Amino acid sequence: MIRIAFRGLLDTARRELGATAALLVVAFGAWGFLSIAEEVAEGETRALDMAVLRALRVDGLPDQLIGPKWLHLAAIDITAMGSVAVLTLVIALAFALLASLRRWTEALLLLAGAGGGLVISQTLKLVFGRERPDLAYRAVEAVNASFPSGHAMLSAVVFLTLGVLAARFADRRRVKVLAVGAGVFVSLLVGASRVYLGVHWASDVLAGWCVGAAWAMACWFAAFLAQRKLEGARPSGPTPSA
């Protein structure tokens, strides 16, 4: 009986690979965030955070970034991709596209994910109230609390959601992988730029990625279940003629 039940679970996991992967991301993302949050609350990440920040500065000059000038400018451009203003524009354009295609489930998923992510981000910042790195390390302006990184979290929510939605429209596996991979890559770049520019600790960004990915996949899984339930409620037979 146990062997039969296990085989049934494996068959279900194979058929619903996307849903299984989403649940794994939710579980590991939540676990990762809670683990980092505990370490941050106890001050265990302070030494590592400072080491990373100093490694990205010229020795003895906290206001001087390592690397060429073009890299500094590129980091500023990349970090703007995780700002509320830019993400709002991206969401608005994506919502308009989905609405024009009458893909209302996907459009509402995008809005719910982004709106919920913003609320979660601001709530967590208020709860932890962590100070950002000293002003001497900051290459750009930043406001509110530091933990978790809002740029890292919201870019993960928005770009991962867009990647997953784009994958649903694709037929080829390589296109699906590219779409999701692009979302992951952009969110990683945005988060890394926050540490490089000195406005976040490395642990802030790691926590932002974890909770952002978990929230994005939780929203996708909720939409997946809702769609399955809706499809199950539709009559399977032919509609009787009047």
Summary, kept brief:
The protein has 242 residues and is mostly helical. It contains 9 helices and 2 strands; from the N terminus they run αααββαααααα. The protein has helices spanning 2-15, 17-41, 46-55, 69-79, 84-100, 104-128, 150-169, 173-196, 202-233, and strands at residues 57-58, 61-65.
Shape: globular
Low-confidence stretches: 236-242
Radius of gyration: 21 Å
- Count the helices. How many? 9
**Overall helicity:** over 70%
Please state the structural category.
Answer: mainly alpha
Percent range for β-strand residues: under 5%
Main sheet: strands, sense, barrel: 2 strands, antiparallel
Global mean pLDDT? 86
The SSE string, one letter per element, is: HHHEEHHHHHH
Query: Reading side by side through the largest sheet, how are the strands ordered?
Result: 1-2
Count of β-strands: 2
Distance between the amino and carboxyl termini:
49 Å
Number of domains: 1
Core attributes:
two-stranded antiparallel ribbon, 9 helices, globular, disordered C terminus, 3% strand, 242 residues
Describe the structure.
This protein is mostly helical and 242 residues long. The chain has one domain (21-224). Helix content is 74%, strand content 3%. It contains nine helices and two strands. The protein has helices at 2-15, 17-41, 46-55, 69-79, 84-100, 104-128, 150-169, 173-196, 202-233, and strands at residues 57-58, 61-65. It has a two-stranded antiparallel sheet with strand order 1-2. Strand 1 and strand 2 form a beta hairpin. Helix 5 (84-100) packs parallel to helix 7. The chain is globular. The relative contact order is 0.16. Mean pLDDT is 86; it is low at 236-242.
